[in-house]
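Please, structure for the following, as tokens.
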Amino acid sequence: MEKLKLKDFLDYRYLGNLKANKEETYYAYTVSKANSENNNYQHLLYVSDGEKTHKAVALGKYHSFYFLNETNILVSYAQTKEEEEAFKEMKTVFYNYDIKRKTFEYYDTLYLPVKNLTVVSEDKWLIEAFLSKENHLLYEDPANRKEIVEMLKKQELYEEIESIPFYFDGGSFIKEGNNQLIVYNPLLKLYERVFPKDFNLRQVYYHEETMKVYLLGKKRSAVLDLYQNCYLYDLKNNETSLVYENKNLNIASFFPLKEQFYLLAAPLEKYGINANNHFYLVTDNKADLIVEFGFSTSNSIGSDVRLFGGRNSLIKDDKLYFLSTYQDRSRLYSFDGKVHLLFDEKISIDSFLWFQKDLLAISLYQQNLQEIYNLNINKKEIKKLTNYNEEILLNKYVAKPRYHQVDNEGVLIDGWVLLPKDYDENKTYPAILDIHGGPKTIYSAVFFHEMQVWVNLGYIVYYCNPRGSDSYDDKFADIRGKYGTIDYEDITAFSNFVLNNYAIDKANVGVTGGSYGGFMTNWIVGHTTKFKAAATQRSISNWISFYGTSDIGFYFQTDQTASDPIDDFKRAWQQSPLKYAKNIKTPLLFIHADADYRCPIEQALQLYTVVKKNGVDSKLVWFKNESHGLSRGGKPTARIKRLTEITNWFNNYLKGE
């Protein structure tokens, strides 16, 4: 049996964009693979009728597609140099893949950058696009478009900022732009804006039966307003109406069932911005709580072998189907006025759809890489439909997670341990504690590449879900104002259990984590010296500067630390790892990217400077033009460099290599 190697992720296939046509005669999806030569990801479009599946077309670096009708698929794509330039000039070029003829031909060019597209009819498309006020000129004044593009290019030399947030992680500066809805007539090449240019949309959901669009949004303000209003856009008469003026709910979704309006939302007073959602019925501009759900309403299981997110919910036959994360799995529920649990097996459902009465899902299951599965709700069976990744792990050692539940003074903490091949209790092994991000995400028993790489190098790897994690109730997830206290105690309790029950060399244990896991890594090395080495990734070190530099800092910091950096400086500083930096003796590796706007790189720079000045062996690896998602969706060479640096750091200190 061969060892799993660090660069093996270059061979992994990543599945995404699972979609079906309206008639449910075909479904399509993308299969992506890293391309080390071009330092990007290459995408293939596959189409299936439920019986036979065929590779439709190689999309290269493009991956967005939309069903045009029953047998045609629109693909955002460029085949010529001129079309490549069109994308650079903020146009979107579409090609048409004809499923029956198996042809791929140019179809249309839109004069704006398309973020999402819904085909309503042959003469009506709904276009979502992120546009500044000047960007609207791109389609409003096509005769002068060349001059407008040149004007916009000159503006790239500077930023004019008048609101917060001013940038988003994974994107760029906002340029006072808004997510807009445009109705496009492809026959007449006409564009019609639905809302004023200063209006910002968060949800656009088209309901086919009523020909109405369900929208969440609000007029842009100087400071982002978390309380979105609910609007209805009637495509039959081009009328927009306000359904619910929201003042106290964090709304995740606004949707119709049986001619009634519902919300999936949470009040923030009791549990803050990470509160779990409940169901509300909207009538006469009032939202009445009808079902208390109180658990996650998405899949928050972490892994580094996905490339795209997926559909967390859909409406079919007057029912809302939605995902939830519970303990160590994805649950599937339906809602029809009441909540019904439909599927509760140990699997991560990354995205799903109904197709000809079958529930199809892109999933991570039993230490396998992503595949498409048929989830039989009645029989509670899981049937694999694809084999894109089967041969990649064939004859490779993949550790099966050992589950443990540790009681920390009445609080039960779930965790797992991965053991090297031929683990021998009479020997001792170096170990690595890996801490997840969020904090409101989870680890589970799904495949995690970096952990399996370390196991194959002879490490015992362990991880857990401390308080603050998702998949339990609001009380468990609520650590506001308690960062570094109860969560640290939970991690310590689980760590102590593992160290006392496995053949670990306690003098050679490392700790690492990213985002919240990076915060906790910083916290741990500032409060104990029991770890031989540490690697902190995309971390938080100073809640006070985080407030004004992170894209979410101005509301996330005050909520999570239960403090204001100006009025309650002491409490914010008390929860900042930088306060304890002079206690750090542990060799500390910093991994951070300069386009990370979620946890800006200044967070790493502050802590690195202190520990370096204090003579601690430390190193900062600064990644250029990578975002907060470096470890999961960064460019292949950056992902290789990141994992190589962390692995070498631990090999040096924990194994003497």
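The mean pLDDT is 96. The longest helix spans residues 636-654.
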